[in-house]
Amino acid sequence: MGEEPDERLADRLNHLFATVRAKGGQEYSNEQVASAIRADGTPISQSYIWQLRKQKKTNPTLRHLQGLANFFGVPAAYFFDDQVARSVDNKLDVLLAEQTRLAEAVDNGDVRLMALRAGELSPARRKQVMELLDVVYRLEQAEQGSAEQS
Fold first, then answer.
1. Residue 1 has pLDDT above 50, yes or no
2. Are the C-beta atoms of 15 and 26 separated by less than 8 Å?
């Protein structure tokens, strides 16, 4: 049997907290989310968000759902439409994989050094470096493809 609507709301809200991250890669706190939603003109408290996440409150207003949806960058229908939720979750999975890949690249000292040096170049020279990187990338991809076929 499927999830009850109350469980679905809490699960989907918790999923957004787990996958949509702050700049530093940290999970947003209930207070950070509430503060941002309040700044957009919707009164909401961190304890109310906690209650939604824990299924203590199960019937949020459309205004609260819209505030949460806006904060996380999803349509409000995400919270109650399974098809919309699947589509958004697929996009979030791709985004999370890209963020993970980027974080791993930034943790690499050579990549960080290249980025720092590129940041000191003029826009024209950065463009040249990007073109060179594209050539090297394509060469490596071709070599990997040849090695896999052998």
1. no
2. no
Q: What are the helix (H) ranges across the chain? A: 5-19, 30-39, 46-53, 62-72, 82-107, 109-119, 123-149
Token digits of residue 5: 């609507």
- Are 44 and 21 in contact, with CB atoms under 8 Å apart? no
Say if residues 14 and 79 touch (Cβ distance below 8 Å). Answer: no
What is the residue whose two structure tokens read 């609507």?
Answer: 5
> pTM, whole model, 2 decimals?
0.69
CA–CA distances in Å: residue 131 to residues 30, 65, 134, 146: 43, 45, 5, 23
Q: What 3-state DSSP class applies to 85?
A: helix
- Token code pair at residue 88: 């958004």
Q: Name the one residue in this structure whose structure tokens are 């809490």.
A: 10
| Closest of 10, 3, 2 to residue 60, by C-alpha | 10
Paired with 21 in beta bridges are 27
**What is the share, in percent, of the chain residues with pLDDT greater than 70?**
96
b (16+ CB within 10 A) / e for 1-29 = eeeeeeeebbebbebbbebbeeeeeeebe
